[in-house]
Amino acid sequence: MANDVWVYIEHKDGAVTPMSFELLGIGKTLADGFGSSVCGFVVGEKADDIAKEAFAYGASKVYAVEGAEYKGFRADAYSKAATSLLDKHKPAVALFRATSQGTDVAAASAALLGFGLCTDTLGLAVDGGKMKMTRAAFGGNYTVSVVNEKAVPQIATVRPKAFAMPAKDESKSGEVVKEAFSVAEADLNTKVLEFIQSATAVNLVEADIIVTGGRGVGNEEGFTLIKELADMLGGAVGASRAAVDSGWIPYEHQVGQTGKTVKPKIYIACGVSGAIQHLAGMRTSDCIVAINKDPDAPIFKAATFGIVGDYKQVVPKIIEKFKGKLGR
Amino acid sequence: MKIAVCLKQVPDTEAEIKWDIPSGTLKRDGMDSITNPFDEFALEEALLTRENYDGEIVAISMGPDKAADVLRNALALTANSVQQLSDPSFAGSDTYATAYVLAQAIKKIGDVDVVFAGKQSTDGNTGVVAAELAALLGWSQLTYVAKVRSIDAGGKKIVVERAIEGGNEVVEAKLPAVVSVIKGINEPRLPNLMGIRKAAKVEIPKWNAGDLGVDAGKVGAAGSCTKVVEIAVPPPRGAGEILKGEIEDIANMLTDKLIDLKVIK
Known about the structure:
The complex is a heterodimer.
Chain A: E1 5-8, H1 24-34, E2 38-44, H2 48-56, E3 61-66, H3 75-89, E4 93-97, H4 100-113, E5 118-121, E6 123-127, E7 130-137, E8 142-148, E9 154-158, E10 175-178, E11 190-197, E12 209-213, H5 222-233, E13 236-239, H6 241-245, E14 266-270, H7 276-282, E15 287-292, H8 299-302, E16 305-308, H9 311-326
Parallel strand pairs in A: 1-2, 1-4, 2-3, 3-10, 4-9, 5-9, 12-13, 12-14, 14-15, 15-16
Antiparallel strand pairs in A: 6-7, 7-8
Helix pairs in contact in A: 3-4, 5-9
Chain B: E1 2-7, E2 9-11, E3 19-20, E4 25-26, E5 33-35, H1 37-53, E6 56-62, H2 68-76, E7 81-85, H3 95-109, E8 114-118, H4 129-137, E9 140-152, E10 157-164, E11 167-174, E12 177-181, H5 193-200, E13 206-207, H6 209-212, H7 220-223, E14 226-232, E15 241-242, H8 247-260
Parallel strand pairs in B: 1-6, 1-8, 6-7, 7-13, 8-12, 9-12
Antiparallel strand pairs in B: 2-5, 3-4, 9-10, 10-11
Helix pairs in contact in B: 2-5, 3-4
């Protein structure tokens, strides 16, 4: 229906995680603002199981394109199929998570439909019958709100964890609307040969807790302590650019302007000075803990809790206390 | 092989950005500009590709007069030719309008096998122009590329590794392709003095909207459907609390506070 809010349900070879349904929560809020419904849309080999979960997370309908050619993610196949759904049903809004897959499909679909999009959105609201999308600009020093005046749908990618997860209710059900759309193998540009699992399985963007080491960590060995704290909390290890450029830890851990943008619930920065480039990547975290020897380090201005001290003394104490209190 | 590389001029990442909020424009006076850091990796990948497979590099940049500097830098780094895409009507273009202008330029250059671009710019941070460009051209869309394994211009094939969540995806794709690269794919070289001197004298060629056959209704602030309706300074984070006392007490307080958040499972 016109005015509906659609949420792209991301999966990997048919497998979903609760985060795949994250945007159905804000999608429902927006749909209430439009007086319409929140719907999921899926491109994949099979959509029924995914749709069932989407209903549990609040989707009233799920639109799907199925086919063998959509077994694994391919940007061109998925974008063409997604575009066919959006073009036919013309929802008011289409939301994608700002992950690699979500961004690829959102960008290509918008381009195929002939308009731009808002990326890495942090705020969404219905304003005068249109969706107002707010994002950070220039390292988070400014926020910019945009409206896509002529676009149907208005497309936004949304920063993971920017909005609360919707509640799950297994008793809910809905209608699956399947549309036929196929792409011949010969017309597809790409083929995935293999997937090389990362040795450290870093997924900073999805992590609820991140423990980050900066220049003050001093060397590669210093990250052992950072990792110990992160592991104990079930979190991920982050790094500042200085630590990555010093070769202490691989680039996939980098948080900041030239690394990942993250929004965990707890961000613990150890020996990070807090240059604007680093703040740009983590300043929207819910709770920021800063541990630094220098009381004038800019990171303290962004911190929820600050500790002036050497991480080498502070972190082992924190680990000890957590061990006692959490029984680990 | 014909290699195109897209470069963007951005404010120096060390510079303090000042925005004139009422007019919605950047205060560029006295602000240093640089080549977008991610684009330096794209240019280096173009240079490495030419070294490994032979070919020619055309560097393009869309931007005002001053953006010629990034193309001069590309020439100093031995790009074979450069082309600036500049027209007053381009100002204020959103990502779609930008990708559209770049696509027109790539078509005009002709016979391009591979386009390299940076993952995102450090000013706009949208990170979608390369994907939009690929979609508009109908070419292979290869984003987040951490490694180019091989390029076979004769066989029209490229194999890359894409750094996505949880690991690297190895993808074989048809040429032509648009490849957006991440930091760490290579170590960008610096231009030598001779190169800088030579490039300083070159008149940077420009294509305007007419040269590119660009539909003026689709570009610039007027043609872009994404409209900025508000610019604001985000509310400051609430004043933080510095935990004071002996390390023992501090660690006690902090762990209590973090456990209270009910995030740690």
